[in-house]
Amino acid sequence: MSSSDKETTIVAFCCIYCAYAAADLAGSMRLQYPSNVRIIRTPCTGRLEVEYFLRAFENGADGVLVAGCEEGSCHFKEGNLIAKRRVNYARKLLAESGLEAERLKMVNVSAAGARLFTGHVREMAETVQRLGPSPLNRAKTRVQQEIKP
Amino acid sequence: MHSAEPEKATEKATELMKMSVARARLLSPLTGTSFAVDQTGLVIGGGVSGMTAALALAGQGFKVHLVEKSDRLGGRALDLRYTLEHEDISPFVAGIVKEAEEHPNIIFHLGADVTNVAGFIGQFKVSLFQDGTDSEVSCGAIIVATGAAPAATGEYLRGKDQGVITQLELEQRLQKGDFAPGRRNVVMIQCVGSRNEERPYCSRICCSMSVKNALKIKKLDPSAGVYVLYRDIRTYGFREKYYKQAREAGVIFIRYEPDAPPLVSQDNGLVVSVKSPDFPEPVEIETDCVVLSTGVDAAGDNRRVADMLKVPINADGFFVEAHLKLRPVEFATEGIFLCGLAHSPKHMDENISQARAAASRASTVLSKAYLEVGAQVSQVDQSKCISCMTCTKVCPYGAPTVNADHKAEIIAAKCMGCGICAAECPACAIQLNHFESRQFKDMLDELFRSGKEERRPAVVPEKSGVL
Ligand code: SF4
Ligand code: SF4
Ligand code: SF4
How many Å apart are CA A81 and CA B362, to the nearest integer? Predict the structure, then answer.
């Protein structure tokens, strides 16, 4: 398997009040977007610790999106601003450890932003494609093989 | 979403499932505290939707505050004269205004603005500004029914020629009887200011409105020529039959394409010319009355109301429900509901159904004397707390305090459950119930666990309770 054939994975942490609802709406609207994204629900992006981002990369994620409410309309006033600070810090750590900082990105999406959300996922998928799989991407045994009898 | 890649979609679903199972292994039961519900509703907007919602709640015995910005009840329905199905709707509108006004359970706040909303489901505090004074009312649930506005336009010589009017104006004239039959031709232009860059949405009511007015003219004078220039006829639902009736009555429908809209000129009297994809040659119609089917604009105040309630509006300025199908009349923020034109352009009967639905959802809150919340709150493991005070600084709600032993303690009633403190605590002494660190980590591990690795052993729940 050449490195570019490797299956890539994007982890998207989505706030219940905005991006998670937008992802749901994207589904209702039947918007097409990259299927390698795995969404993790969070009560607020402010809940997310730097450690989770690093853990995702350590385990083999090729890109991580942190999707919170638009600035100024966080359900918890400023959770998204705190998340932005943590994401920026984690990006520095990534760069220092030799991973491209672009693999981690904070985006802001309102609950109505289905298209915006799918756009961000697509953009991250393109970034990952351009950079290639993360060096930490261990070839997963794909679920498909696993679920085959 | 991934219909082109069914295998990958299944793989995604399976992996999401695996992650959820990994998290579920670590969930523990949540026990919350209960608090009293203020069994009073509050409706913002005194149009047909707002009044219907208020009446539905009042009829169930709840007190309802009805806040209307203007000094008159009725909203947009006051401008309407008749609908496709009903000859004269003003008695209906007057009827529900009267019923609302006379209802002992409805408390009116006319000419009032909502200036602030604090609190949460069951216990909202809403500040009002009325007649130069501020006041505050409490309620357990809020229904947003702020309505919409007719879109203004300057297209097609609107404002430059007396003969160019809107459907609403035509309707009012028809009802008053000052639209003389015997006019030669009436030309209606659809989708004026709708389905374009500025308003990408379909305003939903205008096709039915022109069919309605066209039928009215034909009834007054079957010899009158009525032309409807349209992009698509969208007479939603059973209104399609009126479209058929209009065709049978001799109304002529001519299709145009968005990149070649009709042209209205006034050099030799009013002339409308249109290039239809259905005719080889452009069509010219001499007329003395051009009727524009203008669309629906979101109420200008929506942004302010949305910011106050912390609920979303879309790019067009309409409020967005929590879920299109599963939670269609409520917001993600608990205890706040929506209905009517504030949500999207729609017909009066649809607004009424939606208002009743919103009221019925709101009554699921108001009918409870107590609500249980506060289960998803953060808790401090005081044996780990190093008394750094970080949590007291980062919490947006001032929930963490310091106790006599200099250890942090989180007041459950004040904690909103964002988890900011849990992520920030340098000693990892705080956990947010239901969103614990180990749950996030296990989800991330499970996602990338290769099939060859050993399955995890079953977890024995750590002590009962949390942490
Ligand atoms: S209802 Fe008809 S006229 Fe109105 S925006 Fe939709 S298609 Fe256009
Ligand atoms: S942030 Fe953590 S360690 Fe610091 S006071 Fe709060 S609970 Fe204690
Ligand atoms: S979870 Fe949020 S609201 Fe609750 S104490 Fe922590 S920071 Fe404050």
Answer: 32
